[in-house]
Specification:
Length: about 650
């Protein structure tokens, strides 16, 4: 009965989302919009980081700042607490863009005025400290940071529907320094953070952790005092300020044995908002309970989860309190998934953004599969896979050379970081072929790397340890490699066996995808079964004993893997032993690849002739793969012939 209620509950939230007329409908990704191609350079300008910034580890941030729902002005004091990691620290470095003015700087209680600003770095010569020494740097500052574009550090906007002005932060990947002094280094998570936000009368401000107090200052302005004791990456520190009202619900993960997780929501204080979006907000409750069951207990259960509504075109997974511009099921699930993948375990480098975005997108799929139902999951996964194969190339892993200030959208590429990232997790689940083991892997990864950072290699290591399987080839082809496989299949029945000749050609530079592929066999009596066959070469021949006649074959019927099936052809039964070969692509644009079953590595004579029989090309071929450059031939139909002197086989090719 409980499961039925949750399903109906979530379906109703989907219906409500369809009624939204202002909040953005692009809820698939938290920060990627293909139509948004030009971003002002200031929003994510990386410049360079002084080597001095790596002389210490941050242990604590304390932001005591004043923010406003009417503009993006920021002023106040930030403390950076840390521990020296270098042999000696005699120059303290932090990041803050030049548009933000530093009024005073103290280091361990001593005031310094010799600030040297180099790009976005502030360097201060201080009294030397030794390795292991602790310090407190205090920076009083203020200014108006640049804004505009999705990746702006601080944005102000107006909701015409709900008549509210709202200001919010979004620091990922390089913009935290545009609004507070910090160290932008992914592996260096602060152990804890306080964010005190002084706001105009009549407004509220949300942030991470617990609201420990609301102090009314002598000016009459409220100060919202948020404290979090969980480790946090620099870009996950946030605020949002508006005329909000608070709406709270509670999730009850099974692991808490009756206790609950607060879901604290700051939404527009307008009489129409909650009636319109309440069910959509409530839909996060079964998601928290689901992810707590299949991953590990919600990582920040001692504090909260929640949402701050803004005019953001999507969402941003700020730790314990996501910033949202809409409340669609997919977006809410995606951002919640980030609490595990992105916040609890954060990518160690932007090259490994898969740890954040691929797994959050797959969390979205799992919410569809396990809350909405199998058909909802199938629809989501088909759309994901179709997007992946809509273009031939691209890898999930991002080479460091591609992560530049001019190329920030490469990090958040929806087809690769999000969809291909999720699709290969689904393929990995299929290779493991044991859901209990697969989710044990997810749990172990969260446990081992909790409160820290991880790379794709780290996930591979845990996957191999948990399953006992070798995933080196898997990661080489799917994670680091480019493209996807394309298949041409011929089959026939002979001698109570189904014979399958399966050719795999790559869409891009990865030459071969070794993979398990499902084939649904439909028989003449109306029954069917699924067989799993492992493709370990570009051309494989399979023989499957059957006691009934196969009438139809469907490839990957449950959409576990992503590939294009170019053709499935019923061929004439072969009662002798011909020279088995196949080829691709057909039609040929330039290069033709011929694949042979040639275990003995004997030579074959390869001929190409026109339809009159005139031989145009002739050469000996060896091994199991041979490439022919046909770019010089005129367009038309030709005959490809292969013989070993004893047998020969011919097929048509089109150029």
């Amino acid at each position: 009965m409980k499961k039925l209620f949750l399903t109906l509950f979530t379906v109703s939230s989907l219906w409500l989302y369809a009624q939204q007329n202002e909040l953005h409908t692009h809820d698939r990704y938290c920060r990627h919009y293909p139509q948004e191609t030009s971003i002002p350079s200031f929003a994510w300008r990386s410049d360079w980081q002084s080597p001095r910034i790596f002389d210490y580890d941050v242990t604590f941030y304390f932001l005591d700042i004043e923010v406003n729902n009417m503009n993006i002005n920021i002023s106040g004091t930030v403390e950076i607490h840390g521990k020296v990691t270098a042999a000696t620290l005699d120059t303290f470095a932090f990041e803050l863009i030049p548009q933000m003015n530093v009024a005073t700087f103290t280091f361990n209680g001593q005031t310094y005025t010799n600030l040297n600003r180099v790009g976005d770095n502030v360097l201060v010569e201080v009294s030397p400290l030794s390795q292991g020494d602790q310090f407190v740097a205090s920076i009083t500052y203020g200014g108006t940071p640049p804004t505009g574009g999705f990746f702006a550090g601080v944005t102000n906007a107006y909701s015409s529907v709900f008549q509210k002005n709202v200001t919010w932060s979004l620091s990922e990947p390089f913009a935290a320094k545009s609004w507070f002094p910090c160290k932008q280094d992914l592996p260096d998570k602060a152990d804890s953070v306080w964010v005190f936000l002084t706001t105009p009368v009549g407004t509220m401000a949300g942030s991470q952790g617990l609201l420990t107090n609301t102090t009314i200052l002598p000016s009459g302005k409220p100060r919202y005092e948020w404290k979090s004791n969980y480790p946090i990456a620099y870009y996950l520190i946030s605020f949002a300020v508006a005329d909000y009202q608070e709406y709270n619900v509670y999730a009850k993960p099974a692991a808490l044995q009756g206790d609950s997780v607060l879901v604290q929501n700051y939404v527009y204080n307008h009489p129409n908002f909650l009636p319109q979006y309440q069910n959509s907000i409530n839909a996060v409750v079964p998601m928290i309970e689901l992810f707590s069951d299949i991953y590990t207990l919600y990582p920040f259960h001692e504090e909260k989860y929640g949402h701050c509504i803004t005019q953001l075109g999507g969402g941003m997974e700020h730790q314990t309190m996501t910033t949202l511009g809409s409340l669609g099921f997919n977006l809410v699930a995606h951002e919640l998934g980030h609490m595990w993948f992105g916040d609890n375990v954060t990518c160690a480098t932007w090259s490994d953004i898969w740890i954040n975005e691929g797994f959050a997108t797959y969390s979205n799929y799992l919410a569809q599969e396990m809350i909405i139902g199998w058909s909802g999951g199938q629809s989501f996964m088909i759309g994901t896979q179709n997007n992946v194969i809509s273009q031939p190339g691209g890898s999930v892993y991002i080479p460091p050379s591609e992560i530049t200030q001019e190329n920030v959208w490469r990090i958040f590429n929806g087809r690769l970081s999000y969809d291909k990232g999720a699709a290969i997790i689904h393929t990995l689940r299929h290779e493991i072929n044991n859901d209990e083991l697969f989710f044990q892997l997810m749990n172990q990864f969260q446990t081992v790397f909790a409160d820290s950072t991880a790379t794709g290699e780290d996930f591979k290591m845990v996957a191999q340890q948990v399953t006992g399987m070798d995933f080196n080839q898997f990661f080489d082809q799917w994670y680091y490699g480019e493209g996807y496989p394309k298949y041409n299949i011929e089959w026939y029945m002979f001698d109570n066996k189904l014979h399958l000749d399966v050719t795999q050609t790559p869409s891009s530079s990865t030459p071969l995808f070794k993979m398990t592929l499902d084939y649904k066999l439909t028989y003449n009596d109306g029954t069917s079964e699924v067989v799993r066959l492992f493709q370990d070469a570009n051309f494989n021949q399979f023989q499957i004993p059957v006691d009934k006649t196969v009438t139809n074959i469907t490839v990957d019927p449950d959409n576990w893997t992503f590939e294009k099936v170019n053709s499935i052809i019923v061929s004439v039964p072969q009662q002798h032993n011909p020279v088995h070969f196949t080829y691709g692509p057909n039609p040929v644009s330039d290069r033709l690849t011929v694949y042979l079953t040639n275990e003995n590595n004997e030579p074959y004579q390869l001929q190409i002739s026109d339809l009159s029989g005139k031989i145009i090309f002739e050469e000996k071929a060896y091994g199991s793969m041979y490439q022919v450059n046909l770019g010089q031939l005129r367009k038309g139909t030709y005959i490809l012939r292969l013989t070993n002197g004893r047998q020969d086989f011919s097929r048509k090719i089109v150029i």
